[in-house]
Amino acid sequence: MKGYCGTILRINLTNREIKKEKLEEKFAKKYLGGVGFGAKILYDEVPAHIDPLGPENKLIITPGMLLGTGLPTISKTAVNFKAPLTGAYGRAMAGAYLGEALKKAGYDMLIIEGKSDKPVYIYIEDDKVEILDASNLWGLLTSETHEKLVEIHGKGVRTGTIGPAGEKLSRISGIDFEERQAARGGGGAVMGSKMLKAIAVRGTGSVEYHDEAMIKELIRKWANIIKEHPATEADMKYGSGEFYEWMNKERGTFPTRNWQYGYMQKVYDNLKEGEKSHLDPYYWSPKYTIKNRPCPRCNKPCGRYIEITDGKYKGTRVEGVEYEVLYSLGGVLEIDDIGAVAKMNKICDDYGLDAISAGVTLAWAMEAYERGLLTKEDTDGLELTFGNDEAAVKAMEKIGKREGKLGELLFNGSREASLKLGKDSWKFAIHIKGMELPAYDIRGAKGIALAFAVSTRGGCHLTAGV
């Protein structure tokens, strides 16, 4: 069956059993790959009422069908599970090199089930599959874990790791794929519940296709179309946040101050002619960008490494900052300091937090504090007001570490935090089905309101055909 590896890799962490199963042609033709494979296996094999953090849950990693062909912009890998955050269907996506490596190693899908009795990681090198001790990795940040795995297995190994938040079972924790995050829904907690610190893959093979010449011609044509498209230059210069100003000034659909406003009111109401918000990539990207960083096989890299070279967050270096993060760690907290946003972005990446959920949950706490529902005793002494970037950075570290009263309160997202606090604070917890909302204010975009309501995974703009 050309176009597929033909093998499903199944690993049971309870009994250490490793199986290689045949990918049936009928199944492949019906569900294609990626999300289709993952959703079907999850539906068939994971009962509806199991505990998302129990051994019955499964972590199903499914590279996109065309991943490995070399086709430009074909980069996504899906991670499928029952979501700890919502209790429902969970699926997180990332432009992950690990997915391509998995296919090169000979596998169309990786299914991880059961639970280890001690910290472990999975190492895959073509036919060789091992479950290895991870005691020396447990407790490390995601970036530190990746570096250790490269030391052990050599340059070129591809990784997916969790940080301390996933180890401690935060329902807003994700999986880091070399600074590309499959973040939404709590997949990091699923890995942590299985005592699985990381997955490392090295693949040296290739997938055979029916018409290799056609694939090469498609690569050439598609690469040229992208190169010549009028939006490509702006995407590469300014990234996914290039329309930040338009969303604020023209549409009024950039939620700020925990969704009290649809634009950065305190900034845009006071800007002088020619001035930019400090969250606007047209302000910060030329100033701080070191280099572009694409997803696998993408010739239109909208990702970038930035380094803050001035101010109190000088020296902060991170892969970002994406549009959603400008919202969740900036606008929704009413913070107009790209240095602070970059610092919190780095904290989320290293501790393995979903930056959207973590930021929106912190915004809920800021509103609760300003309403007098939380006190300094509850916030571990932090003056948790909107716009207080120093308090926000310290609070984000507390969430990542599950530290203090504040870290404990916010560790599992805004729905759980509001239910713990009570006092009608659920009324300003911004989530659907438990998942915090992304950066699109429904008051100015009615179609997005419907999309959020019917999304299969909760408050998400990516799973409702929008």
Automatic annotation (TrEMBL):
Please report the name of this protein according to its UniProt entry: Aldehyde:ferredoxin oxidoreductase
Q: Which UniProt keywords apply?
A: 4Fe-4S, Iron, Iron-sulfur, Metal-binding
Q: Write the lineage as a comma-separated list.
A: Bacteria, Bacteria division WOR-3
- InterPro entries for the chain: Ald_Fedxn_OxRdtase_dom2, Ald_Fedxn_OxRdtase_N, Ald_Fedxn_OxRdtase_N_sf, OxRdtase_Ald_Fedxn_C, Tungsten_al_ferr_oxy-like_C, W-dependent_AOR
Q: Which residues form a coiled coil?
A: none
Origin species: candidate division WOR-3 bacterium
A Pfam family of this chain: AFOR_N
Into which family does the record put it?
Answer: Belongs to the AOR/FOR family.
This protein's source sits in the domain of life called: Bacteria
